[in-house]
What does this fold into?
Amino acid sequence: MPVNILPTRNDRVLRVSPGLLVLSMAGLALLFSVRLLTGLVPIAEWPDAIWAADGGDVPSLLFVYSHLPRIAISILAGAALGLAGTLLQQVLRNPLAEPTTLGISTGAQLALVIALLWQPWLLDHGRETVAIAGALLAAAAVFAVARSGQSSPLSLVMAGLVVNMTLGAISGVAVLYNHEYLSELFVWQSGRLEQSGWSQVLFLAPRLVCAFIVSLLLTRPLALMELGDEGAQSLGLRMAGFRPVALLVAVALSASVVAAVGVIAFVGLAVPTLVSLAGARRLKERLLWAPAFGGSLLWLADQLVQQVAIGNTTLPTGVATALLGAPLLLVLLPGLRNAAAPPAVSFAAARRLDRPWLAVSMGLAVLGLALLGALAVGKTMGGWTVAGVDAADFVARWRGARVLAALSAGTLLGLAGTMIQRMTGNALASPEILGISSGASLGAIALTVVLPGFGLASLTAATTASAGLSLIIMLAVSRTTEFSPQRLILAGVALGTIVAALSEMLIATGGSSRTFLLSWMSGSTYRVTWDTAIAAACIATVSLFASPLFARWLDVLPLGESSARSLGMNIGQARGCIAVACALMTAGATIVIGPLSFVGLVAPHLARAVGISRALPHLVAAAIAGSTIMVLADWLGRLLIFPWQIPAGLLAALVGGPYFLVLMWRRA
Amino acid sequence: MTVCLSVREASGVCAAPCFKVEGVSCLVGGRQILGPVSLALKGPQVHGLIGHNGSGKSTLLKILARQQRPSHGSILYDGVALDRLDSRIFARKVAYLPQQTPFAPGLLVKELVAFGRYPWHGALGRFGSDDRRKVDEAIEMTGITAFVNRAVDTLSGGERQRCWLAMLVAQDADCLLLDEPIAALDIAHQIEVLSLVRRLAKARSISVVVVLHDINMAARFCDEIVALHSGKLLAQGGPSEIMTPDSLRRIYGIDMEVFRQPGGGFAALPEPGASGQGAPR
It folds into this structure.
């Protein structure tokens, strides 16, 4: 139960009821729809067009087989995502849970990539079947790793996260080397609702109805889950029975949506939060209003998309929902009740080392070996080579900068990840939640649009500037609440969603920026020069030596806000300093090697899993783990598919993901 | 430093009020849950804060501990307005134990107790020999020497409570604010913890404000009892003034019989026929 964001009824922020919100959005969407439809067929002729569509002219064919089903699918998909998101957040007790948390969309994506590239016959059964199969397999993997529904919500979420990253990395590699064949995939990925008939509506509608009925039947047991596992069990609720059922409903429903219309970001994540901000407090109310709200939001977003043409195409609806909803979340956030966050109970220390520094020095030895290997061992056309001292020039010229950059980025991400996880007490938090990587990416994206033939200097300038700007926005949004973790997390998620939506749109529209963005997003060290590597190394060294300054704060903050305050800590000041430090470190890493999610998330957990619990050894161990992962990933990325290369960021997730899953499996 | 120490040195001799609360009230969601309350808590004494559920005693304690801001009113500590004190300076003077102590997974007892020195060394200062001595002293005083090397989350409720108290002792404050420290303990452990608190208060001549549910425990261990009712101050006085059937009826809304123990203590029991109508709202 990392963060609880539900406001109580008295404190509700919007002075509107959920009903009013839904009505106004649906009304607006209806207005737009009618305007669009009357442009096609005058209102008076609508009944004729509907009844005589098959024999009618082109406008009435479009009316019945394109526009009407599009409206229907937007409402259905939005409702389904809203419902699935509410169920998942309730069951997993985490406001960051969303339909994609359990690996659903990455599973579907990977299945589609495999089918498109290597097994086209699979698509004979329809895109939906392939996507659903992939989604369910991925969800099954998540359940298997977390040992089914009996395990805690936290381990489910963690397993989902790592499965997501691993599968995403696999399809990332495939996409990177085959993106010219995968245009259809990019379109699907950015969520498009164009329809050519009623088949998808008929596919989704019965599933939504079934899921809705089941979740209404489950309302009471689900509501009891708010009491936590122990409280619910003492009331006679069999968690082992109800949790998997509820999760299965949510998973199946989200998988159906993903299969039908692709990845629609944000609805599943934000709608449950928005609905409760609007005053739907009880689970039953939320279960009723979330689908209504999700449906009308997606309907409105889809109509807005159709009003604006960009070039000869329109914005993908998934992008529009993010662009519409994320600012809404940012605007609503200041009204979020500043509830004292529950203390960090998320880290279950399996064991505790008596001598953490021994483990740290062993990790340092492993890092040394990895460095040696990365610098000395390579591959040429003739086979494996080991560079000796005489080849120092060659090594320094071709490998030195990359290895140094990987080392520094890993260190920075490990440190930032540890700080952010200890500060927020949320095991899902990684440096990106501060929105800095997203901001840096936004700069890179903007650059590809404004200045297509950019150089390295302008890339660095653009990413630095936009990372700084996003830091200022984040701090401004959360300053009034002493940088409360839930505020930071949600604001970062909103910012990240906007960036993800924009970059997916650019990738989907193709063009010269696609290749660059794909490689930027996958965290490669290709562009690194000695200058940037040395700059990153300086930042990393300074951060490493500065980290003891934060150790006491990071030791005390997990005790919870009230304990920390009664010990005389100035909470706002401490959190603000930590947030700024994390942001600077993340920016340093992002500018060198691009946005990387995996290392900053996993390195702190690895250090924990070894049994290190105090802040200082935790910071150092996570820095070592992060840099080891990065150096190894960079090295292997050079060797594995020689003469081609795999970006270090992708490979880190590809290798580190399964390893982490095994670790979780053994600990479960 | 000298400022903080002077309080303790002075408090032994002069009876300056340690807390002076003036017209403090607290609104949550438009509902007044506390106040306006005005009272003075004189040091070095053990003050028991009692009242029915929802009477605002925990809220008042949180406001004293600066965990919560009052909606109106002002509070002086040792003559200084509460919100004008730096947070670490304040923590050297006043220590607070929340009603629910955090879970703190994987934390060792000795580490927890050492956290109590934070107000003195801060984020960057050296953990010096003075800090070490205070921690050892606190561990010995609370009798938790046997499990200093165990993880806090593996201890029983009573043991854990003593560890958190040890942290407060190590904090070396002039005033302890304890929110229902004995709520989850059996009677032997209740006595043990409250005796410890009282011993501490007397040995170091510091003041304690403790929220208690059990009126008999309050009468036994407190020098002064402050009774709240529906957010307002109802009575303030020594145990002999509060432990009368009349004032107990006003506090809890139930008829109570008061016995005199041979040793001079008081004990109150609900009258055989009394039916609890719950706390009056």
Notes: The domain at 2-258 of chain B is CATH 3.40.50.300 (Rossmann fold). Chain B has one domain: 2-258.
